[in-house]
Amino acid sequence: MKIIIGRIVLIVAVLAFWEVAAGTFADEFFISRPTVVAVKFWQLVSSGRLFEHGWITLVETLAGFALGAATGIGVGLLLGRNETLAQLLDPILTSLYSLPKVALAPLFIMWFGIGMEMKIILTATIVFFLVFLNTYSGVRSVSGELVEILRLMGARERHLVTKVIMPSAIQWVFTGLKLSVPYALIGAIVGEIMASNRGLGYLLQDAAGQLDTGGVFAALIAIVFLALCLQTAVKATEKLLMPWKTANDEREMTI
Amino acid sequence: MSQPSPPLARRATSLKNCATPARIIQFNGVGKTFHTRHLDIPATHNVNVEIHEGEIVTIVGPSGCGKSTMLNLVAGLLKPTTGTVTYRDSRIEVVNRSTGYMTQSDHLLPWRTVEKNIAVPLEIRGDPREFKQRRVKELMQLVGLSNFAASYPSQLSGGMRKRAALARLLAYDPETLLLDEPFAALDAQLRVRMQMELFALSRALNKTVLFVTHDIDEAIALGDRCLVFGGRPGTIIKNIEVPLSRDRDIFALRKDPAYQKICADLWDIMAPSMNEPGR
Description:
CATH architecture of chain A: Orthogonal Bundle
Strand order of the largest sheet of chain B: 6-7-8-3-9-10
Mean pLDDT of chain B: 85
Strand content of chain B: 15-25%
Low-confidence stretches of chain A: none
Structural class of chain B: alpha/beta
Number of helices of chain B: 9
CATH architecture of the largest domain in chain B: 3-Layer(aba) Sandwich
Helix content of chain A: over 70%
Largest sheet of chain B: 6 strands, mixed
Helix content of chain B: 25-40%
Radius of gyration of chain A: 23 Å
Order of helices and strands of chain B: HEEEHEEEHHHEHEHEEHH
Mean pLDDT of chain A: 87
Largest sheet of chain A: none
Structural class of chain A: mainly alpha
Oligomer: heterodimer
Distance between the termini of chain A: 22 Å
CATH class of the largest domain in chain B: Alpha Beta
Number of domains of chain A: 1
Largest interface: A-B, 24 and 28 residues
Number of strands of chain A: 0
Distance between the termini of chain B: 41 Å
Number of helices of chain A: 12
CATH topology of the largest domain in chain B: Rossmann fold
CATH superfamily of chain A: MetI-like
Number of strands of chain B: 10
CATH class of chain A: Mainly Alpha
């Protein structure tokens, strides 16, 4: 409770300082002021523009996230269980990984146009590598002893994958997923900034184009809010899918 | 310790009447060398031993002399470099499913409850649901974990985890148990308790047991026979018949002068290898 009060005090102090600073020793043109940002934000909400554009960004992010995560998990499992294939593909994947994925945006615009597809593909590409690498490490870190013990029980590859590999990789998968949320937004927003007339990225770019600093901040707030929602959703899913982890956390708290 | 439930007990009595126990495992001039990129590391050489059905054989010796290698050979996880290992008179070519393995770490699946962990081997075997439920219930009773069916391994104490692992091991009823220092991480009281439980269960179910340990007292307390490994590469330097009864009381042993004498003798046998330079 003290923490919550402390946080509120901190936020109010920062906003108050901002409000006072604007127009006194800092140029309001560049930093706007909280009251203006609040009005702009309210205008976005009341006009429905926020939801219209936010919805577009949300769909792009979610679709890209799902596509990237699904292929990342799939390829991670496959390569994790198949050493030869992993060695074969290693140089290709490493060089692709070291490429900043945003640099692919112009290519994707040429291939897929400036519609939602391009943002979805860009997001998926970014998410894929994070999820793939984590899944792969997860699969490789499965205890060899555990696998052999199950083999003695008569387990075949499909038993191993469903009973050991997937559940033990799932923690790693979620590490990758949680890591991916902000990056997924980068994919969608950057895509929108570069070429679009819809989405929060467009809203941001549009406000900046009109030299409307208040509007830029309002769009940023909307993006932060979206990111927080996604992060919370991933954490909730994690909790739902890994009850043993919750049990562990609860146990540690009672020590 | 609760009594073994009816089906298990019935099986035990039917086996008890065997006059001369059959040979179950045979090592014949077995050597194993591990190859790394730069050098060959011989782990064991010239291991010759026969293990009989229903026998509890303990294996002691300094680290790195091939005790665990021996268990891995029986499990079929390793192949001998020289010599042969046979199980029921046939060479072990693939993973030996008549054996169950348990190591110092319990290897329970952390994402499964106790009940679900014990069910793993039954799921793999594809047993029908009702049978599975009954069997798991029976096993949880056997190891005294009935009240913890829905707990995750992380919520259990070390001893309870060991018992859960033991129940899982017994679930698919392997005729030979390969135990590699299973109780090494437990405190003294708990270790004795687990020793008693393991001993009673192995006898009741007439299991053949190969038990690797660093603890000389444990080796004598549990074993019908104790194989002493030594040297590098390791081999069996002594095969001790433990002159204690097959249904000994493990707890009372501590005060038994005969037991203390055997332990002292075993220490003397092992002492030379301890004074070797480089150890």
